[in-house]
Structures are given as structure tokens and as C-alpha cells.
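#structure-requests
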Amino acid sequence: MEEVESIGGALKVYRDGTIFREKDLLVFQTLFNSSLEEVTETEVASKDRVLNDKLGLWVRLYLPSSHLQHQPQTRRLPVIVYFHGGGFCLASPAVPEYHNFSLKLAATVGVIVVSVAYRLAPEHRLPAAYDDSITALEWISSHAADGGDFEHEPWLDSYADLSAVYLMGDSAGANIAHQVVALRGGVEAWSPIKLRGSILVQPFFGSGQRTRSENECPPDAVVTLEVSDAFWRLSLPVGSDRDDPFSNPWSPGAPKLEELSLPPLLVAVGGRDLLRDGDHRYCEFLKQHGMSVEVAVFEEEDHAFYVLRPQSQSFQRLLQQISRFIFPV
């Protein structure tokens, strides 16, 4: 069969429409030629919950184990709703590197993490990932109301502080964290839950005009320009380009950034990441229009350092930044 697209051997698209996608267990090792670093975390419980079996939409929840021995005085925990990266085409919460990341996030920061398994492109092009992520947020929001058509989750009913919900995503997942607010018209649309902030780690935006960091991206980068372009070709609506509103937040068809009601932002930027210039532009534009944006720059880091090297000082620093963002001194 003739290949028409290939992303590091982890995703192959053939001319007859056949698609090969690497198993979750091996996707990062295949894509980045990396070895899995073991993370032992016994202080966090996790479980999966199917939200829509027909769509294949599910979430993985993480809860610090101390809260399972529930006492009436036990404080409720903030909730991080996590959207994984992978160019909209790869990965899920079950990828070991993402599972390890969520374990550490829940244990170190002291939060409930709800990691969303949205549908993937190219079988399900955008806005499918946005639609699924919005549905997951609606399910979480139902726990602050009567429930509607959703069945409640005991962990959220018993332990979650739904007045302190944070959106978080890395790469394509950070794009999703932006879009689920933008497409709904702002944070107020998510009442009765309260979105207190968004944590965007190396957000994946693009446009028809190349940035300097894209043009100067070295061929040995973790994510190269070739791979970035392939992700957009496979995930955007057929016939669209990088100036689509899903890719380019300044597109004429996108909600106007300067008019959006966004929550306070923490944005992590990698100093060696091809996305860095676009990420800085996004942050500076929002700051110029009076929005609360905290930028954490990791000068020596390339893309996806937080999942590829969980023992690194940068990873620990990122967790500290997130902790201070959620629990300011």
C-alpha cells in the first residue's frame, strides 16, 4: 500500500484510506525514539469513566488516595480538566507518559485530574476533539447542578470543588483548552462551574505566515516543522489550511481574541520549541488587551519535555508553577 502521510512511524495514512496508529503503550517510544521513565506514585487512585460509548469518549480520573478515606471535614479539591497533546492525531490518557504525568500532577499539586480521551484525526477531524472536550466539561458541570442527561461520578460529587475548575492542555491539548472557552463565548458560559484559570503548555497554534522559530527549527527537533504541518493537514477540515480559525486564533473567522472573556492564564513556553514565537505572540497580544497572563519560559527545553523527562528539573519547576497558580501564596 502507498503511504500518503507518515508521522514518525506512529501514524501512517495510506492512499486507499487505511490508517495505522501505534498502540498507546508504544506511541511515544515510536514517535520520539524514547524510553519510558518509570514513575511510581502510590498516593493517587485512578479510574476510567465512559461518557459516550458510541463516540468512544471517555475520561480517566485521578484522586489523591487520602481523600478515599472520606471525613466530613476533608476539604474539597480543585479540578484540573486535562487535554492531552499529540497533534489531534495521536495519544490518549492511557499513554504511559500521560498517565504518569497526571499521577504526578494530582499528587504534587493536590488536585483531582480529569483527563479527556477525545476522538482523533484524521478519522475525526476538527471540530470533533473540541466537541468531545466540551461534552466532557458539560459532564463535569452537571455535578454542580441537577445532572441533566449525565450520570454522576461519586469522586466528583464527594471530593471536587467545582468553584475551582482549571483547564489544562499541552500542545494540541492547549489549543483545545483555548477553544472550549472561545467557542462557547467566554468563561461565563460554563456556569454553574467556575473556570478559575487555564494552563497552556506549549500551545499548538499556527498560521499561513511562518514564525522565525518555525523557519529556524532544526531537523533534530522533537517536533519538526514537517511533523507540525502534517498534523495540521490531517486534523483540520478537508480543504482548509493553517489560517483556519481552529489553527489561527487571529483568523477572520475566529472569535476576536481581544473581546474574549478568558480566565487567567499560565502559559509554559519552551525556549527550543518551534512553537515558541507563536506562543509568545499569543501571550503578548492578550497582555496588551488587559488579560491576566503569566508566562513561564523553559529556555533549555524542546517540545514535550514534561512527558519525556519527568525526572528533570524543568518538570519539577513546571509542577511548582502550576501549584502556585492554583494555590497562590
